[in-house]
Amino acid sequence: MTKTTQKIALSTSRDIPFNKLVLSQSNVRRVKAGVAIEELAEDIARRTLLQSLTVRPVRDGDGNETGMYEIPAGGRRYRALQLLVKQKRLPKTAPVPCIVRAVDTDVSAEEDSLAENVQRAPLHPLDQFRAFMALREKGQPEEEIAAAFFVSVNVVRQRLRLAAVSPILLDVYAEDGMTLDQLMGFTVNPDHERQEQVWEALQHSYNKEPFHIRRLLTEGAVRASDKRAQFLGAEAYEKAGGTILRDLFEPDDGGWLQEPPLLEKLVAEKLEGEADIVRAEGWKWIEVVTELPYGYGHGLRQLSAREVPLNDEEAATRDALQAEFDKLEAEYAEAHEATERIAHLKQADMAKEAERLLDATDWLPEPLRTTGMGNATAKDVDQMPHVMAAE
């Protein structure tokens, strides 16, 4: 005798006016998590309702249906629809697609609610990356994608960068052969061949940390914090056709300049321009270098200043300034903070006047005067390309 397999009957679906729906106390979701109700409401307004609500008829004390329906599964969607109704963007009687559970079912409302939440399989991150890429390839701007999914533009760019990694490495990631942090490390260099070479090298190395991956992918590049890059400027480098690699996931201090020969050429040209300015001041020789050789200061002599007598006009100016300074100091002797501030300002004025007087002596070459050095420190001088000159 052949055994007959019992056929499964699916729950019916129908549109129910929104004002006939109420939340069920059987909904197991109690803690707020995931996308906010406001964001979900905006998503429904943009795409309409993508998933039906699961409802059950509400019965009175005698077991008769009242015409109302409670929602054990889909409470967040209901609240989002409720917000749209409150904002008068959705009519109170708008039909809502619902799955109507049978009255005589043996499955409890709590079980329906729990099953809907725990049986939902989350989207694999790689599927999300590729989906963002598909939207971008269809012409959707990054800003529009970000607005549609309530994320920042930078998050969209990160997803697109991850989707652009070598397909071979993406397959490895899909099979749990590498971590997401490792995949992020590979995004620093868009060269697929180089990415694959580094991945192959990692198979024979104990160090598979993301920072090591980034270091291998940027070998030969010049950091944007390098003094040559700082001297030239990223804008000038890119304008000349240079490429700067950027890390969207970790601080990169401006990235890595990918073409060192181009950088050296541009730095040399800019240094020559600076040398021409110095050369026009009358120096006997000019030497341009990006690095000062070891012991470059050996044998150099220190220039000693010689005192130049002031003429009558200069002496009178100095005495007037000193008299004004003494008067102010005496007047504000009790106000310590004011005295210190005024003394600082007057000393600055006197320094400027002394500089003016110094300009008239012609004994000190212009590049060695304080106005030429500004606020430079020994560290500043060591971290910039150099123009060496002599009288």
What does this structure look like?
The chain is built from 17 helices and 10 strands. It is an alpha+beta fold and 391 residues long. Among the domains are: 12-118, Conserved hypothetical protein from pyrococcus furiosus pfu- 392566-001, ParB domain, CATH 3.90.1530.30; 312-390, no CATH class. The strands form 3 sheets. A 5-stranded mixed β-sheet has the order 1-5-3-4-2. A 3-stranded antiparallel β-sheet has the order 6-8-7. Strands 9-10 form a two-stranded antiparallel sheet. β3 and β4 (65-73) form a beta hairpin. α1 (37-47) crosses α2 and α8 (180-186) runs parallel beside α10. The longest helix has 24 residues, at 336-359. 15% of the residues are buried. The model is unreliable at 363-384 (pLDDT under 50).
Key attributes of the depicted protein:
single chain; 391 residues; alpha+beta; Conserved hypothetical protein from pyrococcus furiosus pfu- 392566-001, ParB domain; 5-stranded mixed beta sheet; 3-stranded antiparallel beta sheet; 17 helices
